[in-house]
Amino acid sequence: MTPAEAGRIGRAWIAAGGDVRPGMRDTQGARLTDRHAWVQPDDWSPAVFAANNYSHLPDLRDAATRGAALEVVRERWGAPEGHLYPFERAAYPEALSWVFRRFYGADFTSEGDSEAAALLAALEAAPKVSP
User: Fold this and answer.
1) pLDDT at 65
2) Cys-Cys link to 126, which of 10, 50, 56, 76 (CB 3.0-4.6 A)?
3) Tens-place pLDDT, residues 77-112
């Protein structure tokens, strides 16, 4: 994934209402130590964050950040056993995609061409929470 793609996914993550969690890495390589380490508390809202060109976006190329993002997606779906796994299409075995399922045996909830894209798609498809 290119830095530009990582930035696009990070911006879309915030725009979709995705939380940032301690331990996540930002697109500048810094590790988040608390919720307000990237923006001032007054500025913390997904709408304000996404509307501005903040350089500190969650970097879903990082394994720890993807793990924290999976936690967010599980919470949004109310699915503590939700999981990602690689999926090989029978017709196109070279075209691997990633799938999120709420529980084992469930239909696909979302998919993407990378773990990061599948997590973003799962967040975007999750039931909306009240502000």
Assistant:
1) 93
2) 76
3) 888 988 888 877 665 666 678 888 887 666 667 778
Q: Would you kindly state where each structural domain of the chain is located, as residue ranges?
A: 3-125
The pLDDT of residue 33 is 67
What's this model's pTM, rounded to 2 decimal places? Answer: 0.77
What are the angstrom distances between the C-alpha of 117 and each of 40, 48, 52, 53, 109? 27, 22, 22, 20, 13
DSSP state letter for 28: T
> Exposure of 108 by Cβ count < 10 A (0-12 exposed, 13-18 middle, 19+ buried)?
middle
- Least confidently predicted of 11-15, 47-51, 62-66, 72-76: 47-51
Spatial separation of the C-alpha atoms in residues 71 and 87, rounded to whole Å:
21
Report the candidate in 103, 64, 101 with the shortest Cα–Cα distance to residue 85. 101
Phi first, then psi: give them for residue 59, nearest 5 degrees. -105, 95
Tokens, residue 80: 């503590």
